[in-house]
């Protein structure tokens, strides 16, 4: 019928607008490289903040002792205790607890959020067996993974530049997040010192390096997305401090804020951005990361409903609810292998209150998931190509057989199989066979927590 033809035309147009042919991805990679240079050249020189992390030494594996870590960066936060045993024993043990953040605290006050976190940390500490007390009156030490853009002032302090990923707590912007946490810990009588403030990408890089010395970059694909890598300190014109002995400095790119005219942005992305908590910002993140993918699919479906009567004469009201299709729902539908696409049918019934979807309609839904996931995964691969270009590792060098390992983590990468395999195959496509053989993508499972504990150890006040 005419309506079905109209629906197909909408899908086709969407697919075209989301297109990421190799040439376009190379342009995105080149643009990333250019913006990286600009962001390193001067403060505010690029949308890419290229933040200096003050981490100029990554773990060697010699770290020893009992350290804590706190990981805040999405809807959950985690508290960890890691027992490090040095070269011989590695990580002797680790325990963690995950706590979800009540939504009202994500947009409330700084005190509200940090007091909630400090009390969860205190509970975790209180629950541990005797014998965990640090020896001779020493303080417990904590690595704080805080995965929002922070302008570091030292390895253990930094001010919040802005919130992302659905957080919006105005009175915390511009404040030292370690100061805020410390204040809350003191208030409830928790005696602990933050010795390292890092971002999840830096934590993942550090955690990855502990196990594999070839790790040179880390990428997070979770609620949001970001990347960090090891730069030569002499290649950072905006760094006016002393050059570290290592000659290296880890850079937190904040690549979620990357934007380029080469990015394939559709009407749905534009609307999502306009209606977001941070319009005009984190454009790359809004095309790629777990917080947003499901909602892009929802917006495409809503257009099908409104302009092609895809679900009948009126658009189903639930389709108008922002973020009602979460990326895990999308992933489940995308991976549906049942002949009648039962998972899709059930999700539509349970999440959207739309029953009686035909197989033909369900196939369209899967196609939309495919379009959105592929675009995100391919753009993430282009971003990685940009980093490799920046550090001259995008081509195989004759006579060298060293590997470059990129540590990847985050729920999207971990659980969305089609996204992950598409990212991996796209990176190969972009690098070519020879160079691709020198690049390894490694899933660093929860490396960021251990990484923060490792950095807390290497920056301990007692050494
Ligand atoms: P965060 O980024 O909040 O620190 P994670 O790295 O655990 O936390 O990532 C969580 C995100 O990963 C979720 O917001 C969701 O978008 C995505 N995710 C989790 N599970 C799945 C899944 N099964 N399929 C697709 N995406 C998922
Ligand atoms: Mg995380």
UniProtKB/TrEMBL annotation:
Annotated Gene Ontology cellular component terms: cytosol; mitochondrial outer membrane
GO molecular function per UniProt: ATP binding; D-glucose binding; fructokinase activity; glucokinase activity
Domain of life per record: Eukaryota
Boundaries of every Hexokinase N-terminal domain copy: 11-208
Membrane topology: Single-pass membrane protein
Gene3D superfamilies: 3.30.420.40, 3.40.367.20
Keyword Membrane annotated: yes
Catalytic activity: a D-hexose + ATP = a D-hexose 6-phosphate + ADP + H(+); D-fructose + ATP = D-fructose 6-phosphate + ADP + H(+)
Record domain Hexokinase C-terminal: where: 217-457
Keyword list, A-Z: ATP-binding, Glycolysis, Kinase, Membrane, Mitochondrion, Mitochondrion outer membrane, Nucleotide-binding, Transferase
One Pfam match: Hexokinase_2
EC number: 2.7.1.-
Name used for this protein in its record: Phosphotransferase
Species per Swiss-Prot/TrEMBL record: Lupinus angustifolius (Narrow-leaved blue lupine)
């Amino acid at each position: 019928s005419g309506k079905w033809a109209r629906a197909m035309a909408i899908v086709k147009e969407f697919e075209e607008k989301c297109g990421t042919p190799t040439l376009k991805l190379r342009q995105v990679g080149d643009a990333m490289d250019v913006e990286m240079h600009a962001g390193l050249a001067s403060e505010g020189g690029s949308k890419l903040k290229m933040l200096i992390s003050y981490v100029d030494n990554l773990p060697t594996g010699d770290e020893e002792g009992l350290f804590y870590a706190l990981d805040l960066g999405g809807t959950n936060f985690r508290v960890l205790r890691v027992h490090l045993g040095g070269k011989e024993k590695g990580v002797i043990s680790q325990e963690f607890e995950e706590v979800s953040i009540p939504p009202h605290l994500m947009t409330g006050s700084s005190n509200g959020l940090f007091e909630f976190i400090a009390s969860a940390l205190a509970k975790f500490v209180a629950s541990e067996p005797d014998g965990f007390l640090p020896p001779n009156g020493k303080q417990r030490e904590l690595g704080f993974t805080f995965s929002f853009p922070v302008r570091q002032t030292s390895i253990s302090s930094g001010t919040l530049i802005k919130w992302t990923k659905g957080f919006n707590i105005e009175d915390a912007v511009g404040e030292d997040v370690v100061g805020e946490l410390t204040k809350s810990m003191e208030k409830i009588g928790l005696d602990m010192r933050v010795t390292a403030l890092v971002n999840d990408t830096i934590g993942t890089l550090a955690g990855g390096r502990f196990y594999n010395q070839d790790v040179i970059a880390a990428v997070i694909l979770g609620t949001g997305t970001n990347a960090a890598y090891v730069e030569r300190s002499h290649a950072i014109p905006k760094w006016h401090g002393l050059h570290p002995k290592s000659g290296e400095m880890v850079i937190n790119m904040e690549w979620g804020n990357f934007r380029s005219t080469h990015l394939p942005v559709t009407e749905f992305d534009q609307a999502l951005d306009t209606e977001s908590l941070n319009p005009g910002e984190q454009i790359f993140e809004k095309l790629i990361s777990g917080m947003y993918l499901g909602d892009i699919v929802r917006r495409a479906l809503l257009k099908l409903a409104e302009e092609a009567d895809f679900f009948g004469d009126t658009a189903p009201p639930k389709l108008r609810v922002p973020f009602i299709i979460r990326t895990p729902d999308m992933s489940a539908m995308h991976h549906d292998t049942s002949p009648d696409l039962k998972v899709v049918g059930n999700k539509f019934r349970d999440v959207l209150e739309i029953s009686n979807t035909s197989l033909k309609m369900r196939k369209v839904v899967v196609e939309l998931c495919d379009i959105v996931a592929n675009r995100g995964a391919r753009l993430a691969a282009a971003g990685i190509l940009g980093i490799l270009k920046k550090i001259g590792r995008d081509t195989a060098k004759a006579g060298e057989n060293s590997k470059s390992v990129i540590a990847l983590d985050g729920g999207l990468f971990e659980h969305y199989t089609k996204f992950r395999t598409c990212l991996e195959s796209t990176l190969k496509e972009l690098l070519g066979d020879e160079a691709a053989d020198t690049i390894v993508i490694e899933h660093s499972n929860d490396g960021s927590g251990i990484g923060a504990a490792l950095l807390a150890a290497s920056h301990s006040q007692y050494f």
